[in-house]
Design a protein that fits this description.
It is built from three helices and six strands, in the order ααββαββββ. With 131 residues, the chain is of the alpha+beta class. It has one domain: Nuclear Transport Factor 2, Chain: A (Roll). Strands 2-1-6-5-4-3 form a six-stranded mixed sheet. It comes from Legionella oakridgensis.
Length: 131
C-alpha cells in the first residue's frame, strides 16, 4: 500500500500541477471531497483547494516539481519537494515544500504543508495558499 500511495501522489502532482489546464474531474480523480489542507497558517477545504488550483493556474505559466524524498508509512506519505515555476509575468518562483499527505481509499484526504520560497517577488509569495 505504501508504494501505491507514493505513486498516487506522484500521478496527482503531474496531472494537476504540471499541466496548463486542470478541470474539477481531474482533481476529483485524486482528491477526496472531504479533503483538508493546512498550509503556512491557512486552512483549505476541498472547494477552497479547487479555487487555489484555479488561482495558481491564472498566475503561473510553468511549474516543475522535483521530489527530493518521499517516505510512506501506513496511510501517510511525507515529502520534501522543490518547486521551480515561472509566473505569467515572467518572474521566477523557486522553493522547497515539506508536506505530509494522508491517503484513504485511493484518494488524498489531507495535507499538512510548509512552503519556503527562496526566490519569489513579494506579490508571488502567497502562491502556496492563494485562492
Amino acid at each position: 500500500m505504501t508504494e501505491e500511495n507514493k505513486l498516487l501522489l506522484k500521478q496527482a502532482f503531474k496531472a494537476i500541477f504540471e499541466h496548463d489546464v486542470v478541470n474539477e474531474e481531474t482533481i476529483a480523480a485524486f482528491f477526496s471531497k472531504e479533503y483538508r489542507q493546512w498550509v503556512d497558517g491557512h486552512e483549505l477545504d476541498y472547494q477552497d483547494f479547487i479555487k487555489h488550483i484555479q488561482a495558481q493556474k491564472k498566475r503561473v505559466a510553468t511549474v516543475s516539481i522535483e521530489f527530493k524524498s518521499m517516505i510512506a508509512e501506513h496511510d501517510k506519505v511525507a515529502t520534501v519537494h522543490l518547486i521551480d515555476a515561472l509566473t505569467k509575468e515572467g518572474d521566477p518562483v523557486r522553493g522547497k515544500v515539506i508536506a505530509q499527505f494522508t491517503i484513504k481509499n485511493k484518494k488524498i484526504v489531507a495535507c499538512e504543508e510548509l512552503t519556503f520560497l527562496h526566490e519569489a517577488k513579494e506579490k508571488d509569495r502567497d502562491l502556496g495558499s492563494v485562492r
